[in-house]
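DM from R.C. (forwarded with permission)

"hey, sorry to bug you on a friday — could you get me a structure for this? deadline for the figure draft is monday and I only need the backbone to look sensible"
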Amino acid sequence: MTAPVTAGVDGSNESRAALAWAAREAERRRLPLHVVHAWRFEVHDAVDLGDRDDQGRRVHDMVDGMVREVAERHPGLEVTCEIAEGRAVDVLTAAAAEAQLLVLGSRGHGVLVGFLVGSVGQQVIVQAARPVVLVRADDPAAEAAGRDIVVGQQGGPDDTAQALRFAFEAAAARGAGLRAVRAWTLPPAFAYSPGSLQLLDEVGGLESFERTALEQALRPWRERFPDVPVSEHVEMGSAGQVLLAAAEHAQLMVVGRRACRTAVGARIGSVAHGVLHHAPCPVAVVPPG
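My reply, with the result:
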């Protein structure tokens, strides 16, 4: 069975935007679309939410309506749906494991605040075995054909290989250009050694070293996707700030995931966290593979 593009929905405007984005992406990639809703029977002391059957009917009506709408807009698209009872994080993480990518809605409150990634979204991003794309309901770039795909690259060629793969595939599916961004900062003084200084002199300095590193990371993907036009951007500064500046005119931002475990649970890396909260376009977070 071909792995689908999967959209998690809850009836909100954000999840409707995510479903619309997922349907377009499924068509571009010639993949089926799978719609998932996580449901749990709720009892509230102050509000009568109905019994299990009542709640179940409302859930099915909501999901059926969303599926019907997307099927009408995309008559040639294979659409399936699933209503699974359980914790949203567990249901969505399991759905992601069977998908090419998972698409979720992300609530935004204006340009200054940007993305507000809830605990469910963050936990799914940390745990998902596949790329997760977050889409806002008021996203001005969701339909911005002609804009580039922007991808962040850091470290060596293997460190962001999966993010580069996803970005090149997305650009090829859209016929879009790809802009690869690499940010760098001056190392602390104690990092300099006679050997490192000699290496930097041989490659022409730090910026030249960073440009060479980006070129090396891109080379195999350029060979695999020769029709994707690629531009390179190397800039000194905070990786999050440099990427957010590049995202201003992007139709999709792609970043790699660096999940870490803390005393209060798993967290995504600081760069992905900043981009998710403030980027003005959909953001794809890609696990290392």
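R.C.: lifesaver. DSSP finds nine helices and 14 strands in the chain.
me: no worries. The radius of gyration is 21 Å.
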